[in-house]
Amino acid sequence: MTMISPQGRPFLKMHGLGNDFVVLDARTRPLALSGDAIRAVADRRTGVGFDQMIVIEPARSKLADIFMTIWNSDGSEVAACGNATRCVAWTLMRASGHDHAIIETKAGLLDAHAAAGGLISVDMGPARLDWRDMPLSQAIDTNHLPLSLETLADPVGVNMGNPHAVFFVDNAEAVDLARLGPILEHDPLFPERCNIEVVEKLGPERLRMRVWERGAGITRACGTGACASLVAAARRGITGRHADVVLDGGTLTIEWLRDDHVLMTGPVALSYAGTLDNSLLP
């Protein structure tokens, strides 16, 4: 039997704690993406399937190694993704033999380095807490957003390159996030929609978080959501400025540094390499 040798574009399938990605390298072969093409690859039955598609392009800043563009499975573009940043940083470090990489995104430059135990740490930049940074549709104290739906109320707003509304609850598992998440995501308070987290305190330095990601739905992990949850907990006095955040897919360690930057540390995984047929992507 002779196997078919596909003609198309190589890709990596990677994930960070189950938050999964298709990673495409467009540094030497430019890639023009349509929403239809993104959604076709995102289809888990007829494409590959992913929470986000990541496109690596030549850096625009002289300080960066690459520029990273992030697309949700619904075809919408976002500026930041913590788990994807770790995955891309790992591929760059593996290729270069270095233990450090600088990744440029629409949210800014992200400094990544290899940590103990095969983990990757990323400085996700400063937590932005002004209502204009979220952005919100009106001037409001982001430590207490006037938003409620059934048992969820009084969230904290944090922008980590993308907007998050963090609800603190007694039992994160009991929240019907699949039903409430899309309603809250599209609330008029959020002109650019919003990521929704429900967070339960497990201990002085331990949080349980579940997430509804705008444009992707429930995912097993969200790096920027974990960062936002720790910042929100620290603002409310629920924890200090350091905690382990337990997600559906595993645990991230988050620290809100004194310069207001947020450091995220966690694992990455390479699932497989493949080739996308030309019928899916140009």
Principal-axis shape equals globular
Order of helices and strands: EEHEEEHEEEEEEEHEEEHEEEE
Number of helical regions:
4
Task: Kindly report how far apart the N and C termini lie.
Answer: 29 Å
Q: Which blocks of ≥5 consecutive residues have pLDDT under 50?
A: none
Name the structural class.
Answer: alpha+beta
Percent strand? 35-45%
Nearest-integer average pLDDT: 95
Report the radius of gyration as a whole number of Å. Answer: 18 Å
Helix content: 10-25%
| Main sheet summary | 17 strands, mixed
Oligomeric state of shown chains = single chain
What's the count of strands?
19
List keywords for this structure.
4 helices, 17-stranded mixed β-sheet, alpha+beta, 282 residues
Brief synopsis:
The protein has 282 residues and is an alpha+beta fold.
Care to describe what's here?
The chain has 4 helices and 19 strands. The protein has a 17-stranded mixed β-sheet that branches. Strands 9-10 form a two-stranded antiparallel sheet. The longest helix is centred in the N-terminal third of the chain and has 15 residues, at 82-96. The relative contact order is 0.18. It is an alpha+beta fold. The protein starts with 7 loop residues before the first strand and ends in a 5-residue tail after the last strand.
